[in-house]
Amino acid sequence: MEPSVLATPQSASLFAALGDEARLRIVARLCGEGPLSITRLTAGSAITRQAITKHLQAMENAGLVRSARQGRESVWQIEQRRLAEARHYLETISRQWDEALERLRHVVE
Q1: Contact 41, 88 (CB under 8 A)
Q2: Domain coordinates of the chain in residue numbers?
Q3: Nearest 5 degrees, angle CA 64-CA 65-CA 66?
Q4: C-alpha dist (Å) from residue 18 to 21, 54, 105
Q5: Residue pair 74/68 in contact by the 8 Å Cβ criterion
């Protein structure tokens, strides 16, 4: 495995943060709609403001999102670097599986 993508506590916390369905929906909204306040994230959702806040805090602890004050509200956005790290990690694992399957195919043939 490439040294830059070795499993680390940081990558484990990132994938733990992404391992929740509600958090994945929040990530999808932030990626699709850009920075949003908790009020906007809560609108049209069955999830309470308090639950959204807890999910955002968990993702912030993993470095996946960050907030900035805009007036009286905090606006949350994706930390693109961390999302790119996850993508890179998954691409590396996928490539390793492809290589292992190709080696197996050669052995079987």
Answers
A1: no
A2: 7-108
A3: 135
A4: 8, 14, 33
A5: yes
In CATH, the architecture of 7-108 is Orthogonal Bundle (1.10)
CA distances 83 to 30, 33, 87, 89, Å, are: 12, 16, 6, 10
CB 29 within 8 A of CB 36: yes
Do residues 73 and 38 make contact, with C-beta atoms less than 8 angstroms apart?
yes
* Cα–Cα distance for residue pair 6/17, rounded to 1 Å: 18
Hey, what are 94's tokens?
A: 């996928």
* pTM check: above 0.90: no
22: tokens are 């509600």
Chain segment 31-40, per-residue pLDDT in tens: 999 999 999 9
* Per-residue pLDDT reduced to its tens digit, 72-101: 999 999 999 999 988 888 898 899 999 999
